Amino acid sequence: MPPKPKVSKEQVVDAAAQIVKESGMAGLTAKSLAAALHCSTQPIFWHFEGMDAVRDAVAQRALERFDEYLRAKAENVSAYKAIGINYIRFAAEEREFFRLLFMSEHTEKDILKTHTEMPYVLKVLEEEENITGALAQDIYEEMWLFSHGVATMIATGTAKFTQERIEEMLTAVYRGLINNQTQKKERRQE
Fold first, then answer.
1. So where are the chain's domains?
2. What is the DSSP track for the chain?
C-alpha cells in the first residue's frame, strides 16, 4: 500500500491558485508548485494526473471566486447594476483569475451561454425590469459585452476609471439597452 501523501489535494489547489494570482497561468509549473508547497513534485501527482488537471482545478477555483463576486450586494444600487460593478471589480481585484476565465484560451466554451450564473443574472433582470425571454437575453449579452470591455481595460491596465465613472457608464448603457429593447418590443407588437 502506497504511503499517504502529506500534502492534501486542497493544499495543492490553494498553492496553485496563489501562484496563478501572483504570476498568471504561465507561472504555474510542477516545479513552482512544489516549491510553494515545500515538497517534491510527487505529492502533487498523487492527487492529480498531470499539470493540466491542476490547471483545470485552478480554473474551477477562479470560476467559484468569480461567482462569489457576481452575487455580492453593492450599496445603493440595483441588484442588476451590482452585477456589472462586481464583474468589473473582479477584473480589478482578481486580475489573473479574470484573465484566465475571460482572456485566455484555457476556457474554450462560449461563456455567455454556458456560465452557471446566467440564470441568476436573467432572474435579476426579470425581477427588476419585468423583461423576459429573448429581450432579457439580448440585454444580458449586450450589457455583458460592455462590462467586459471596461473590465478588460482595467485588467490589462490600459485604462483607469473611478468607481463613480464606472457606475455612471453602467447606468447610461443599461438604460439605453432597456429603452432600445422596449422600442423593439413595441415595434414587434404593432
1. 74-189
2. -PPPPSS-HHHHHHHHHHHHHHH-GGG--HHHHHHHHTS-SHHHHHH-SSHHHHHHHHHHHHHHHHHHHHH---TTS-HHHHHHHHHHHHHHHSHHHHHHHHSSSS--S-HHHH-TTHHHHHHHHHHHH---HHHHHHHHHHHHHHHHHHHHHHHHTS----HHHHHHHHHHHHHHHHHHHHHHHHHHH-
